[in-house]
Amino acid sequence: MMNSTNDSKISISELYYILVALGYVATLVFTGMRPGVLGAFLMVLVLLELFLRGRLRFTCMADAIAVAFFAYQAISVIWLTLGGYPLDVYVNEFVSSTLPMVFYFVGKSLDSRAGRWYRLYLCAMMILGGLGVIFYIAAPKFYIDWAYAWSYISKADTSTMRVRMHSVVGSTCLSFIMVAGMLAGSYFLSEEDAADLPDAGGVDSPVASGKLGRRNIIFAISTIVLCLLFAIMANQRSGLVAAALVLVYINYLLFFKLNIIPKKYFMYEVIAVAAVFVAICAIKFEFVLKFWWRIISLPTAISQRSEQWVAAVNNMYSSWLGNGLGANGHRALGLEDAHVIADGGLVKLYCENGVLGFSLFVYLIVLSLSKGVRSIRNYYVEVGIIVVGLLQSIGSNMLAFQICAPVFWLAVGAVNSFQMHHEKRNFTSSFPSA
Known about the structure:
Layout: H1 4-7, H2 12-26, H3 35-52, H4 61-75, H5 77-82, H6 87-98, H7 103-108, H8 114-138, H9 141-149, H10 158-161, H11 171-186, H12 206-209, H13 211-234, H14 237-257, H15 264-283, H16 285-296, H17 298-314, H18 345-374, H19 376-392, H20 405-414
Helix pairs in contact: 2-3, 2-8, 4-18, 8-11, 8-13, 11-13, 11-14, 11-19, 14-16, 14-19, 15-16, 18-19, 19-20
C-alpha cells in the first residue's frame, strides 16, 4: 500500500474523467479539439504514473489474464492487416477500447483512495449532465448545429435534438456513465466513507463520524437522483433498463442484504417515488409513455440485431483468432471487403478476438465477479458497474467507447485489488435508527 503522503496527492487517474469531460466541452468552442486524442494522452500518463509509483503489481491469476487479454488484442494487428484492413482502424480501436485497460491497475491500487476517485468521477458526471440539461432545455442553434456535425442527431432541428439528451458525449455514452454514476454515488451511503476524504482522520475520527458523514449521505442521494435523471433523459433503451435494475440492486443491498440503512427509510423512498410518478403522470402523461414505449421496444431491437450478429459470426476471418481489433466496429464501415459490423459489444468482442481472445475476457470477468459476489459488502459498487457494463454491451458497443471503458476496467481491477479498499468500513449508517 502507498504511504499517506502519496495518497494525499491527487493523481492523474483521479482527474481523468474531469479532464476528458472538459475536453469534450472544448469541442463546442474549438473545432480542432479531439477529446479522443486527449484521452489517449492522459491514459499514457496514467500508465507512466502507475509505473513510477510502483502500482503495476501482479498479485493474482486475474492480473495475468488481464495482461494476456491486453497483449492478445495488441498483437491482433497482425491478422487484421493480413485481412486487408488499414492500420488506422486498429489504432483508433486500440486507443478507444484496449488502452483503457490501464485502469484495471488503477482499480487494483485504489485502496483508501476509492472514495476520492468516485467523488471526482461524479463531479465529471455533474458537469456533463448539467450541460446536457441546459442544452436540452435552451436548444441553442449553435449546439444543434454542433450535435448534427458530430452525428449525434440526424436532423439539425430542435425536435430531433430533444428525442434524447446528448450533452457533449452522445446519448449512448451518457447513458452508461450515468448509470455507473448511480452506483458510484451509492458508495457514499455509509458514515465511514468520510474517511476516504482528505484530512478526515480515519473512520474513528470525530470528523468522519459527524457532519462529514451526514454530508456524504446528502452527496450520495443527490448524485444518485441526478445521475438517474440524466440517464432517463439520455433515453437509451438499455440505459433505461439498466437504471431501473440498479435502483432495485442498490435498494436490496442497502436496505435488506447489508442492512446499511434502516428499513423504515425504504418506505419513505417508495412513497416519495410514487408521489413523483403520479405527479408526472398527472402533469405530462405523454412524457411517461415516451419512455415506456422505448423500454418495451427493447426485445424487438435485440431480435433485429440478432440477424446481424449471426451474419458477423459466420463471416469471421478465423473462428479461433478472430478478425482482429476494430474489424467489426463502426470504424470499419465503408471499407471494401470489410466484415459485417457487429452492433453489439459482446458479439463484436467475440468476432474480433475469436475463441482464444474472448475466452480470456470471459475468464477474467468470471474470476472478478466470483470474487466480488463472495465479498459483496466490500465490492457492491464494482460488481454493479461490471454487470451494467456487460448488460449494456449486449446491444451497444459500450466497451469500445473511450469515455465508457475506463470506469468498467477500474471496477474489474478493484475487485482484484491488493486488499479490499472497503474492508475497514463497518457500514454504520448516518441515518437515525429511530
